[in-house]
Amino acid sequence: MLKKTxxxxxxxxxxxxxxxxxxxxxxxxxxxxxxxxxxxxxxxKGNLSDTEHINQNDFxxxxxxxxxxxxxxxxxxxxxxxxxxxxxxxxxxxxYPEEAVSKIRALEVEHVTKLQGFKVMAPSKLFKLKDIDDxxxxxxxxxxxxxxxxxxxxxxxxxxxxxxxxxMNIENFLKASFYMSVLLTxxxxxxxxxxxxxxxxxxxxxxFYFKAIVGFSLLLYGVSGKSFSEFVWNSQLNKLR
Length: 241
Fold this sequence. Notes:
Elements: E1 5-6, H1 8-19, H2 26-44, E2 69-71, H3 72-81, E3 85-88, H4 98-111, E4 119-122, E5 136-142, E6 145-151, E7 156-157, H5 159-163, H6 170-188, H7 199-223, H8 229-232
Antiparallel strand pairs: 1-7, 2-6, 3-4, 4-5, 5-6
C-alpha cells in the first residue's frame, strides 16, 4: 500500500544514506567531519555577532549523535524534493513546542554552551502563517553541517512530492511538459478520424502543444512570482513560494 504521509526525519536520513552508500558507515563519515571541524573552529569562532548569520556552535564533538548530523547538501535535496524552505528561525512564524525548547536547553547544559544560529526546514507557509506541518529544527555545526535538534508536527503528505515534482527544477519541468504534450497529441489525433495524419503533421502538433505548455506555464509562474524549488529552497523572499 502506498504511504500517504512522509516522515521528513526518516526521509532526510535516507537521503544522507544514499549519498554515503560508498562509505563504510556513518561513523566513518562523521570522524572525517570532526577532523575538519576542529581545524576550522578557531578560524570562525567569535567572528560573527549576528544570530541570523551564526554558522557554528561550540558543541562537544564527543557527545554529538552521529545520526543527527546532516550536510547542507542532504537538507537541500530534501527541501527541493518536497518544496520546503531552509531558513533562519528569524523568519519562522510558527510556534515552537515546549519539547523543542527543552531539547535546546538540555543540549546547552550537556555541551556547556549557548546555541545560536538556528534554522528550520518547513513549507514556506510556515514562514508567514501560524500553522504546523512537520518542521525540523537545526543548529549549525560549521563547515555546512547541521545538527538536527527536534522534529514536530504531523508527517508531510506523500503527494506533496508528486504535486511539486515538475517544479523541482528545469529538467523536471521540461520532462513534464514533454509527457503532457505527448498525451495531448495522442488524444487529439483520433478526434479527426476522417483525416490521415503524416508523421510530420503529428510532430508539428506535438511541437505546438509543447511550446504552448512551456510558454504558458513559465508566463503564469513568472507573473505569480514563483520559481523552481532548486532556486528557492533557502530564499528569504516572500513572493517565491
